[in-house]
Amino acid sequence: MPEVIGILLVTVVAPTWIVFHYITRWKQMKGLSAEDEASFQDLRTTANKLEDRLRTLERILDDEVPDWRSRYYDA
Q: Is 66 helix (H, G, I), strand (E, B) or coil?
């Protein structure tokens, strides 16, 4: 009888426990951590600044060299 209990534990209980354990871990890790969110926000801020700089440079070029876009895209 102890062999049956051991086999039952090894073949049914242990794998089921392992699966549920990792499902729980996976669900906990689904969202972003506070550190990840802070990094993401920093990246977003940097991207917005770079986009503003690019728009400014394009406006300057439009004023200084009106046909710069056609020269660039035709080449």
A: coil
User: What is this structure's pTM?
Assistant: 0.54
Contact between residue 43 and residue 37 where contact means Cβ atoms under 8 Å apart: no
Say if residue 24 is in the same domain as residue 37: no
User: Which residue has tokens 């242990």?
Assistant: 14
**Do 57 and 42 share a structural domain?**
yes
Whether residue 37 sits in one domain with residue 9: no
Clarify whether residues 48 and 71 are in a common domain: yes
Residues 47-65: pLDDT tens digits? 999 999 999 999 999 999 9
Distances (CA, A) of 65 to 15, 18, 26, 58, 75: 70, 66, 55, 10, 16
